[in-house]
Amino acid sequence: MRMSAKAEYAVRAMVQLATVEDGTLVKTEDLANAQSIPAQFLVDILSDLRTDRLVRSHRGRDGGYELARPAADISLADVLRCIDGPLASVRDIGLGDLPYSGPTAALTDVWRALRASMRSVLEQTSLADVASGALPEHVGALADDYRRQQQARGQ
């Protein structure tokens, strides 16, 4: 999976919004400064998030942004799909329509397994989980496995 800078910034901004008290509006500049995101880039990101109804904006001197629903009800997958589209795609072709045959036919199942794996992490991890540092158990276990593998490789 390759995550664009825009998607990574969007996730960071959303997690930052998840840390503020309900009803508190956060100005774009404050959000940009808190996460070191270029302000103009963040304006475009927040516009996309607003269009997908993940954030609400309020105009005026006291305006700003807030999550459109509780942080526990917004998954990382929701944010990533809003910004970059489908979580895992192969040349923007549906998995059932891939032109694999012969020895490559099993690749379709490999891509299905990859998509299922990504979904199990991204759809089941909410903004609230990340903001609190209390990740779902299976996500923590996968991260621990990855760290062990990196240590075993001396990285």
UniProtKB/TrEMBL annotation:
InterPro entries (alphabetical): TR_Rrf2-type_CS (IPR030489), Tscrpt_reg_Rrf2 (IPR000944), WH-like_DNA-bd_sf (IPR036388), WH_DNA-bd_sf (IPR036390)
Keyword field: DNA-binding
Alphabetized GO MF terms: DNA binding; DNA-binding transcription factor activity
Keyword DNA-binding: yes
Entry annotated with the keyword DNA-binding: yes
Source organism, top-level taxon: Bacteria
Name of a matching Pfam family: Rrf2
Cellular-component GO terms for this entry: cytosol
Coiled-coil stretches: none
Name of the protein described by the UniProt record: Rrf2 family transcriptional regulator
Organism expressing this protein natively: Mycolicibacterium duvalii
